[in-house]
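Usage

Read records sequentially. Each one opens with the input sequence:
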Amino acid sequence: MGAVDHAPRPSSPGEQRAPAPAPPELRPANVSHLYVHLPFCAHRCGYCDFVTVVGRAEEHDRYVDALLAELELERELLARPLETLYLGGGTPTLTRTGALLRLLASLPPAAEVTVEANPETVTSPLARALRDGGVTRVSLGAQSFRPDLLATLGRRAGAADVRRAVYALRDASFDNISLDLLYGIPGQSAADLDADLAQALALEPEHLSCYELEAKPGTRFTHRHGAELGAQAEALEGYFEHVVSRLTAAGYRWYETANFCRAPSVAGGRDLRARHNLAYWRGRDYVGLGIGAVSTVGTRRWRNRPSLRAYVGALLRGARPAREFEELPGPVRERERVLLGLRLDEPLALAGLERAFDAAGLARAERLGLVEHRPGTVALTRRGRFVGGAVTADVVA
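and closes with the structure output:
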């Protein structure tokens, strides 16, 4: 995939989905956030667990036809204009350019329009076409600048490709570029990580996402690199702290566990946080289109099944694609709101979320200096954010 921005595809922790016998009635809503999944990739990276399809260039136009058919079926759920539109993958910029531009022209307008991209797919003509097509933000999957680490990951773009992509986007007047980096890669040293951060900062992106490499058990990546991944696990905490220290010293705001943006004081007052991802972390409703895409509206969550053929076939017949549904009782959504909201650097309002907290756990975390609990709000301290998952597990009922 182009970027590893996991937020556009959230799901409940430990959720169990069961196929519904028929699509439930969906009432008109006013959802302001739309995710569109473009699954096509030139090849599949060993560590990736996203819904992807390798090659299939002959299917691109039919898939876009199916996306637009699904959009028409769900249009009454969407606000107009949207606040955010996010095209993720896969590698959206691998999609045939004519099909991609036709899709962009047919989607609802939005204040923030993000497209994920692999660096090697970004050319000057494509960058100009994306800008003319209304894209306001591009997320580039750099992952690393080290050739040996990129080879380990199975990535095809090198450091020169990342730089060329950034320059092409700048020439096309993009002023909101995000770079993704991974740490904890087998064979990566602290010096390698520092060099990656230095090269990323030299490109002056408005936003950086820095993720710990998570390779799923049973994948060919873990089979090949299991021992090295185990060895890296001991270094991850130090790597995380170094990422935060280096980027905040460079004037970036650590606004979410793995995400950084130029602080307003060095960005001309602009708020450069990823607005689409903020919607997920703040518990907003969203609609997802495409194979494997997830939607959450009110008390219901559904996921399109990840079969390309079945998805396209159903929609081109005028039917909704096969989906799995989950009901979300109030306590479940409240718990998710806390789990995601505590990832941010802003206080989480307690109103309506009181029963999602474990009072004893919250008091214990506060005594340990991991949580700041004020009347009406709660937030993790800087120390608490470094062990965020453990703290939230302790404070959530």
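Summary fields computed downstream for this record:
- The longest helix spans residues 60-74.
- The chain is about 35% helix and 20% strand.
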